[in-house]
Amino acid sequence: MKNRSPLIGFCLLSLAISILHAQEVIARSPPSIPEERSKEISSLARSYYNLGKELYSANNCSAAIEYFEKALDMHPKWGEALYYNGICHSGKTDYKSGALNMMAAIQDPGLGDKERAWAYIIIGHDSIFNKRQFDEAESSYMRARLIDPLNVEAYNALAYLYANQGINLDKALKFSNHAVSKSESRFYKLYYLDTRGWIYYKKGTYDKAERDVLRSLKIAKEYGLPVDDFDNITLSELHYHLGMIYLAQNKRTEAMRSIDKSLEFNSNNNDAIRIRMEYPNGQ
């Protein structure tokens, strides 16, 4: 696959979405230590692991990492501890360490399928963000989809990867439709609608592209975004997409308004900066 813009925005946004979504899923049904595995793990390591999980649940990833790594010093191949450690490192934007933990975690046959699927998704994001290896990313997302067919983020990641590369757009649309229709969370649907809108843009179906991105922005407003810096990145990307859709329809005024809005939320959005430099007077 060839490297096409906007990659960095995609990596940061998609990886953060996956981490947040994985945290939500884990909160609903946290993996437990199987009975046979529990006998293999020392009581001290289990104590460190449980402390790490408590801190993780309290959104204190820095402290959680310390305890997960203490547990891993004693049992370095423990999949559950590696998995949580990977989620925490990724949550702190240390994606390389996150992926390294996930690659070790998937070697443990005791790791559950849901966790294994999320691990492959984060490995796939790292393949793009740190390695620029798009075929490897595609392979990881495919593995995640096969391991857990109910994981809609795997479908969304594949769809967005194809859209940004401008390839397999029919397949991308199929995957994106699946993510939108199967998402149980209205909040996460805002990301999946944006993906589908971006695919429609790449296919030249601008009316549907505009509709989906506007729906995405409407959901973001319903949830009171922005709340934090990650939301600013999200909104910047959504407005950039809308600006490009307007530009393709020769709606210059609306396009530049959206591009300016994108830069208000994230002044470092290089794709929006590039477009603004191409149209310095909005013309």
Description:
The chain has helices spanning 7-28, 35-40, 43-57, 61-74, 79-91, 95-105, 113-129, 134-147, 152-165, 169-182, 186-203, 206-222, 229-248, 252-265, 270-278. By secondary structure, it is mainly α. Helix 8 runs antiparallel to helix 9 (152-165), helix 9 runs antiparallel to helix 10 and helix 14 packs antiparallel against helix 15. Residues 1-11 have low confidence and may be disordered.
Q: Key features?
A:
0% strand, single chain, elongated, mainly alpha, 283 residues, disordered N terminus
Strand content: under 5%
| Poorly predicted ranges | 1-11
Helix content: over 70%
Give the distance, in angstroms, between the N- and C-terminal Cα atoms: 33 Å
Mean pLDDT: 87
Distinct helical segment count:
15
Number of strands: 0
